[in-house]
Design a protein that fits this description.
The protein is α/β, with parallel strands linked by helices. It is 36% helix and 28% strand. It has eleven helices and ten strands.
Length: 242
Amino acid sequence: MNRLVVSDIHAGYGAVRVLHGVSVEANQGETVVLLGTNGNGKSTLIKCIMGLIQPSSGQIFLEVDGRRIDLVGRSTEDIVNLGVTLVPEGRRLFPKLTVEENLLLGAYRPEARREIDRNLSACFETFPILQQRKRQLAGSMSGGEQQMLAVARALMSEPKILLVDEPSVGLAPILVSRVIATIKELKERHNLTVLMAEQNFNQATKIADRGYIIVHGKIEFEGRTTRELVENELVKKFYLGV
């Protein structure tokens, strides 16, 4: 049983406060979406979970088989080694390395190194285009192909909890739909727990079990189901134009 809990997190950049008492959680096997337009704190929260930003107060922890593991104060490497992996906004690939080299770097954590061949085969099965392009430099691929590579690289680490930050950014609508559908497929196949930060409401709710709406660094609404999100007044105002 793996559960990610974020409780009353305050964080920012220097004197600029971005998050104000944010609390979210993702339970085993759920896909939870964090909805918000640009500049409302989605990526900052993801960075706090990954140890890239240290919050000024609050708690972030994993519950693994009844054991609590605090993440605040841990290095990003330690957090990845615990089975938490990020697909970052903007892909953040190594453009001058090949597709295959990028994938192999995803298997850096010790637990994943023993399964490199199996995981590489699984990635190529899920994304056949990556196998066809495995000798190609990552920087020369299209945006959609790079996003697929970023997701596949994350899977190479054998994650238990997958964080996905703005997978739709910079992609054509048809590619957004394909990437979102692939995240759902991978979640089910690998029994992942997924927390996805996204501003594309219509695509995100296609795969979400439930979610949160963040506005100006505060959680303004928690939808216990996708239907509750769709029917919320904030969603109608900011996402559906009602």
